[in-house]
Automatic annotation (TrEMBL):
Pfam families: Helicase_C. InterPro entries: Helicase_C-like (IPR001650), P-loop_NTPase (IPR027417). This is Helicase C-terminal domain-containing protein. Residues 65-228 form the Helicase C-terminal domain.
Length: 228
């Protein structure tokens, strides 16, 4: 072609005007409530087990200790946000399938009427379809999902979205996709993101095993401050 022109009908991805974005810092040094919460059996969220073999010293500022504190506080902050804003419906994004399962179990023991459902790759297609249908019809208040499972779902106008963990910096589109689930002309939406002030140790599996506890090979330190 001679003198071709590019016509962009979609435009640049931007955050919707109807979405109010809030960042909540998760600081395990300033907020030591996680020590008390973690010490009471069954009162904190089940973490991902990445620090199971690490020595955690509550009150210290060791890297592994603070990472565990972040995980406990994020679960607690989700509960506080739900109560503070009296959320009727919310989509909650987690980084891994395990995080989704742990949060689902934690919310269900917090209050009896907090109905939850998960969307992630370990749930069968039939279960994911049923869970999404229940959420759309209002039978389920909280839809907990990973980015992969949430891609392509037709759910808009939800009043709240919680980012329990931010997506990686190279995946800006995932963040915009997440917050694009909330807000419409008749009702503003709120996107609440929890950002850890210290690096968090997370699973990043390099092996092909479905269950793995090799933290040397299959874990990374994730710094949310650098991507927020």
């Amino acid at each position: 072609m001679h003198f071709p022109q590019w016509v962009d009908l979609k435009g640049q991805d931007v955050a919707p005007d109807t979405v109010h974005q809030i960042v909540c810092m998760v600081d395990p040094i300033a907020d030591k409530s996680w020590i008390r919460i973690r010490s009471k059996r069954g009162s904190s969220i089940q973490t991902d087990g990445i620090h199971e073999k690490d020595k955690i010293y509550p009150g210290s500022e060791e890297q592994e200790t603070l990472s565990e504190g972040v995980k406990v506080l994020k679960g607690e902050y989700v509960v506080k946000a739900i109560r503070q804003f009296d959320m009727d419906q919310c989509i909650i994004f987690c980084r891994t399938k395990l995080d989704c399962d742990n949060l689902e179990a934690y919310l269900k023991i917090q209050q009896k009427d907090w109905s939850c459902a998960c969307l992630h790759a370990d749930r069968s297609p039939d279960e994911r379809t049923a869970n999404l249908k229940k959420f759309k019809e209002g039978e389920v208040r909280f839809l907990i999902c990973t980015d992969v499972a949430a891609r392509g779902i037709d759910v808009r106008g939800i009043p709240y979205v919680i980012n329990m963990t931010l997506p990686p910096p190279e995946d800006k589109s995932s963040y915009l996709h997440r917050i694009g689930r909330v807000g419409r002309a008749e009702r503003m939406g709120l996107a609440l993101s929890f950002v850890a002030t210290v690096p968090e140790k997370v699973w990043y599996h390099q092996c092909r095993q479905r269950t793995c506890s090799d933290t040397r090979r299959c874990a990374i330190w994730y710094d949310e401050i650098s991507v927020s």
